[in-house]
Batch of 2 targets.
Target 1
Amino acid sequence: MREVAILGVGMTKFGISSKTNLEMFTEASLDAIKESNIEPGDIQALFLGNCLGDFEEAQAHMGPFAHSELGLPVDAPATRFESACATATVAIRHAALLVGAGVYDVVLAGGTERAAKMGTPLATRTFAMACQSQYEASAGLTFPGVFAMAAHMYASRHNIPLAELKKHMAEVSVKNHYHGSLNPKAHFQKKIDVETVLSGIMVADPLQLFDCCPFSDGAAAVVISTAEKAKDLIKNPIYIAGMGQASAGPLYVQRDLTRIIARESSVKQAYSEAGIGPEDVDVVELHDCFTIAEILAIEALGFYDYGKGYPAATKGETTFKGKVVVNPSGGLKAKGHPIGATGAAQVYEIVKQLRGECDERQVEGARIGLVDTLGGDFGTVCNIILRSR
Amino acid sequence: MREVAILGVGMTKFGISSKTNLEMFTEASLDAIKESNIEPGDIQALFLGNCLGDFEEAQAHMGPFAHSELGLPVDAPATRFESACATATVAIRHAALLVGAGVYDVVLAGGTERAAKMGTPLATRTFAMACQSQYEASAGLTFPGVFAMAAHMYASRHNIPLAELKKHMAEVSVKNHYHGSLNPKAHFQKKIDVETVLSGIMVADPLQLFDCCPFSDGAAAVVISTAEKAKDLIKNPIYIAGMGQASAGPLYVQRDLTRIIARESSVKQAYSEAGIGPEDVDVVELHDCFTIAEILAIEALGFYDYGKGYPAATKGETTFKGKVVVNPSGGLKAKGHPIGATGAAQVYEIVKQLRGECDERQVEGARIGLVDTLGGDFGTVCNIILRSR
């Protein structure tokens, strides 16, 4: 396999937008293409992530239409990927695999979603289709419920009083809102305190409003090429050091909601390919769709032993100058969560961090970054490890 | 790139089914796995095609659930692909590319759809989302309308009286129903005559009922490995000789509906990679979603010059012992069209033909076969060329 690099990256501001998916994806892509010092005609394939375009704007088969907006060549195929929240990460992984393999030299990958536009009730209901419909969604399960169950199981398994766990969960939200306040592209750019989280309306016990990420509109895109080619085009390529993707069945098969088996497998693949371990990671963008999700993630990714990660935010270990900076962008919680774009925005943030372009939220001396995206109720996990030279 | 082969293939009977997408895909996949002399635990990745699972049974993110039904390993990632009608072909192409590249050695790819279950009016309406929603679907365009316009343009451009063209289109339907009558897995297994076609209800002028393929329920799957490995596992591997995929924008960009530019590009890639031309193809499964679509396809694939393909069925040139046997399975018209499964069923048929396992519908001495799948209103085309040793 050839060494693979990320050239340019682009993303829209996340939040509430009046633009269509195609408009948002075009905006993000043209920024990425411009940063790459290439033209749309140089792109050899498009890997487009989108989850619910058919419900958002009656648009399936979005690949060729994004392709057309960008003016890509006819012989550059456009393919739509969908893997729930991990959609864009999976699209980027496939793009990078095919560049590494020598099938393509320069490709565009990313995702777009108009999830805020739908409104939270409809988005929650339609997005529950990423659970298993026959046995899970039909029983009334939606994602707040999934993660609420995980929080209860975590408290029970590790003998943590729920009230204590909730305070630590609140600190995750406070930390990510603080990070988001430093990110001009974040959906929410306002600092909050623990009291705000603990006094929020109850969504799914024990998850209150500020334990939950928002649905957002937004798009993000990256240009991927060989490392060889990257050197000729730009002065600061960021390299893909390792990737992983794994799958697991419905919750009744997984059983233990506190250890996400697909994540354990996926990140092991990525660490192994990169020849590193969690101790080498300086910065991570991970899947904090709910506050408990960040706690589960920092454990399965190897930063903490199981049952030991919950006080990390409270102790300041996951913010700037901490043990590992988690979600400097604000994460899904504050940067926002346009489902099919989220993974690409995580890659965007890590690339910017490794280039040292993050101003106030810059993680000092960051050289190795990890992307972690979880799809559905733990059915898909995809990881990408990036490094500067 | 390593040489790639197809081991086992499986498909459900197409038609109206009471099974879920997961049940149908599992049935097809287990047949394919059994034929391959492997176990589910040997599969290293799943490439699953599905278009409208969210509308059919409120099921998005179908990859991991299919993965779980089959008992695949956690470290074998499952990814859902969607490229309208070309969905499964695109999934299979990506699977084959990654096997060729050395990323995987043995993978499963295919698709499933429960389109009949929705009923034709709802399926027609929801599937119109594969047109461009902002400018096309919002103007009332559905697929019968797209191909009706193509038929009118074909008649006009080539100076063929519409009544004459319609008779030749009817012969395509008669031919494909005849082929379907020889296929125990076809949705329709009944021969019809030209009179039946020309007396059918009008769907979208000039397309009458029997000019249109049905929506079907069904699934199909194939196991793909390296040619090297295939030799050790089965006695009759079929080899992937070439592949192509291309994309084009909405109709207002494409303009000429009689020449599908994505098909011209895609099949050129496939012929070039295989080192053959149309004259070398013995059998083809192509995208006859409407009778006019088969005529457009045999021209863009190079079997006929533009404007010369319309009498091919009438002359018997596209049936057994003809110039090139087109849709021996019955095609979308008679075998049926479970959208996200169609491309995999085309591969299934070509593999069976090249193995000589097609009984009454066997194309004698078939050595090279072509798969052609069209997605949306000409937005995606994917081609796969297969050959026996």
Target 2
Amino acid sequence: MIMNKKNINIGIVGLGQIGSRLYKEILSKKNDIKIKTGTNVTITGISAKNINKKRSFKFNKKIFFKNALEISKKKNIDIVFELIGHSDGISKKVIEHALKNKKHVITANKAIIAKHGDYLSLLAEKNKVNLEFEASVGGGIPILRTIKNGLSTNKINKVVGILNGTCNYIISEMESSQDSFSNVLKRAQLLGYAEPRNPKFDLNGQDSLSKVRILSALAFNKKISKNNCLMDGIEGIEIEDIRIANKLNYKIKLLGITEIINNKLFERVHPTLIKKSNYIANINGVMNAIIIDGKPVGQTILQGEGAGPGPTSSALMSDLLSVLRGNIKYPFGSPYNKRKKISFFDINQYLNSFYLRLEVKDKRGVLSSISKIFAKNKISIKNLIQNPDKKNKKSSVTIITHENSEKNYRNLIKNLSSNKFIIKKTNFYKNREE
Amino acid sequence: MIMNKKNINIGIVGLGQIGSRLYKEILSKKNDIKIKTGTNVTITGISAKNINKKRSFKFNKKIFFKNALEISKKKNIDIVFELIGHSDGISKKVIEHALKNKKHVITANKAIIAKHGDYLSLLAEKNKVNLEFEASVGGGIPILRTIKNGLSTNKINKVVGILNGTCNYIISEMESSQDSFSNVLKRAQLLGYAEPRNPKFDLNGQDSLSKVRILSALAFNKKISKNNCLMDGIEGIEIEDIRIANKLNYKIKLLGITEIINNKLFERVHPTLIKKSNYIANINGVMNAIIIDGKPVGQTILQGEGAGPGPTSSALMSDLLSVLRGNIKYPFGSPYNKRKKISFFDINQYLNSFYLRLEVKDKRGVLSSISKIFAKNKISIKNLIQNPDKKNKKSSVTIITHENSEKNYRNLIKNLSSNKFIIKKTNFYKNREE
């Protein structure tokens, strides 16, 4: 009763952890798919770098294509999964060609959607096919579908989330094991929670920012923003910061936030001090959590596993069934030409209270010298905790400030960096009081 | 690009708080609906008991029908909202006639879906129209859509939730104000959180059980169960229970639970002691929260406002857009004839640890007499706290047991009720250790 076509052929490009799991998932759920959508699905094309790599499943070598683009061109393929994950290059070519050849595309690739999502959605709309990317944000949490369908006509004004499981694992694990960033990162790499070669894009906030940009476009019905964002990662967090935050009744979390302030878009990713009593302070390990403020629905929270083959293949399968249920949907919920550009909030105007930890020489006049810099920048101090380390003739000074503008903070940091008493770069986090 | 029909007419049956809010919501979101679905929607029929009742909006009296059934018969109506809320009678007739006349139906009515959902879904499938009921469970939380679409091919084995905002408000408020059940109920009624005339179905667990039955059918792809369930409400909870639980590091929550144990369905609703560190113990006020365990996705949590015109109209609008996006969906995700009956878990075999509070005479031999009853039923005691009330010559005895079967507990309660030392009926809750 639902489908147009009774037999649908699938191509999978990329057979890493995710692609392999998806391959097995589709085969094992063939009957369930048939019941729910009336469609027989068959995998008729797969592509990966190396046909001979040892894999956990067997496949007919006739359906293997060394050149990924062949999958996008093959006549007997209706749906293409792009699971390579680059923001350009072969990933972009595979998706472009598939859409132009009127094949539906499903991808887990946040980098390409954050960068080329508008262009690709227009291409999908023009060719009357679906472009689905539920797995690109929040792993197994059906967050994009929730915004597009579950909360479809709500006026959303803010989305806040822990969007990167790697970072959340590292911060939680630093706290529970009282171990250093670099040791915990090594463990995360061994456990498969962090990229073994180049974990940079997880750790520096780029991965979260891509997700924030996709969320903004959906939540606010706008084009994907290209502006410079406030982006800060977790590489600078030291165990000492976590300890002090803990004493002050805070947790440190890497948050991705997008909101509308005076009709302007403000997207940001940064480590944030959050009161322990706050829901999101208690999300630990590789979990993701996302809070949506909308009208008339109020606050909706979604929580679940943010990464890994299981959750990701769950999201990919939900996209597959969405395509199989038959109609063509706008990839971002609204047509391309109705999604306007939105002007960007001036980061300098952003008001927040801040946490700073300075390592200073243990000398007379230090506190007075530092206080002067704060006063000069019109920033007033709410809490100051000094921890002397007599043996090494130094002292750690933790300061929580009253609310002030980002502009003043940047000047403050600049001024502090040239102060003769300060031994090393200042650790510096936003302090979200909510 | 999406719709078959460019102009869609809507009828609304029931103009209480929910219906009125929906009426205004549809009018104010006409343009948004047009953008997202390409459809012009017009409300061409409304029905309520009294045309002259004072309302917060004006309407053309020509579209008012005193007889609700006229809406289901009218030619120029494509979609009918049923918002009366009875489990039978006029609600059933309105939905039946609308489906038979090939109109899509959207309802917020959990009672009718829990009772007649299978029959009505078959009727919808036969007539190739949609029957949507997102608002029937979890208020504004898009929980049904999440199970049907977001987690579509996951193997779900358990769903646990706080499903009734009225009960959760009352329990939370008893704790924070240290006030009695009856006083807090009165306040809840004044605030509109509890039915002013007959709050019974919220308080006795029936409302939560209806929601549990809908969740089971969707989560496990089964027919709606008709079996007797373990159902207990919050009417018996005393402030003393909340205080003692608090001292023991527990919160009391009314949970709705459905799970598969050895291929059998076990549905239940009961007040439950939950460790304070547990996520769901910290859901307060009118909030709802639902935890889904699925494979391969892992654990997914959804939280949001569970009732009220805002959240409910959000869910109704998501149903409307789902219908307008065009294709016909199975109301329960799978076709009627593929949803099998499932055999029911024997409640007597259910193992749990229990909390009991007895009020006993302050006499010699009491504890020994009570202990004997526990021993006779093979139930061993984990914690016993005695609180003497010398002035009134009585004593409160709180007992937490080791795990045992429901059958043994029922016998225990029966035996305790005939004990000469016990002054009043025993308060008795499940103790979920997770």
